[in-house]
Amino acid sequence: MHKVIFDTDPGVDDAMALLFLHNHPEIDLIGITTVFGNASIETTTRNALFLKREWGIGAPVAKGDGKTYNPMRNPIDWPVMIHGHDGLGNIDVPDTIDLPLDPRPAHRFIIETVRANPGEVTLIAVGRMSNLAYALKEDPDIAGLVKQVIIMGGAFDVPGNITPAAEANIHGDPEAADVVMGAAWKVVVVGLDVTMKTVMLRKRLADLTAQNGKHLKLLSDISQFYIDFYGQHVKDEGMVVHDSCACVYLVAPELFTTCSGAIRVVAGGIADGQTIQKPDSRGFPPGNWDDLPSQHACIGIDAEKVMALLDETLVR
Ligand SMILES: [Ca+2]
């Protein structure tokens, strides 16, 4: 069993990823930590509690601080045109959910849960990297106690999605992402190079919902607004399933190819939030990538098999 803490900003594609983690028989979801990005921290946390309640998920929810690693960063508008005003596709999520939060802030929940399960926990981070960076700042030694970190974010040999240089999760907190990439733990970056190839068609989601209406009806309702947005960008009416793609990596890494090397994140200037890897196979004069751990950027994917595994798990 893979013990997982899911660090998330629900978020439509986050909701699908959460259902994948909840349904997969080899995954033990032991915590959900919330971060801001697709919506405010209040909204993403309320949404995490809502999905927990609706899908009967046992894992506790711990709320993030809702602050970038560098407090001087200017706030970015919430992407309401993609995720809706409620962060879940404008389905009228109740204002409050009558479920308790874990009393700890997200970064401390991560620290204490990792310390209680040394060497066993995978962190899957599909929002901004703020909580992970704050956890490392408070307790740098957890890097050696985490099994691996899988993140959805970044873009290496393809354009970004919020600027030509940057992917949104990284762009929302570049200083945090640079801390996460530079820490002495194994990071696998599942970025736009591969996620843009994983598309859930509207029709396919309807077919899956017909097979298992109980949980998928809600997911389908949540997803329609996002598909309306992505429909302009994706052929055949579908949605890119960024966050699910990162979760599939956990149980089927053989469906991905990776490039190893130190990764840095640009902070400031026109390329703010850009991810740049120094491949281990290339030599360069001394520079800013030296003496950092070699991380793993996904550069190839068997998208058909990834989507088949996603389909099969969502209908369980
Ligand atoms: Ca997300």
TrEMBL record:
Which residue intervals define the domain Inosine/uridine-preferring nucleoside hydrolase in the entry? 4-307
**What does the UniProt keyword field contain?**
Glycosidase, Hydrolase
Species annotation: Shinella curvata
Q: Which Pfam families match?
A: IU_nuc_hydro
Reply yes or no: does the keyword Hydrolase apply: yes
Q: Which SUPFAM superfamilies match?
A: Nucleoside hydrolase (SSF53590)
Please indicate if the UniProt record lists Calcium as a keyword. no
A GO molecular function term, named singly, is: hydrolase activity
By what name is this protein known?
Nucleoside hydrolase
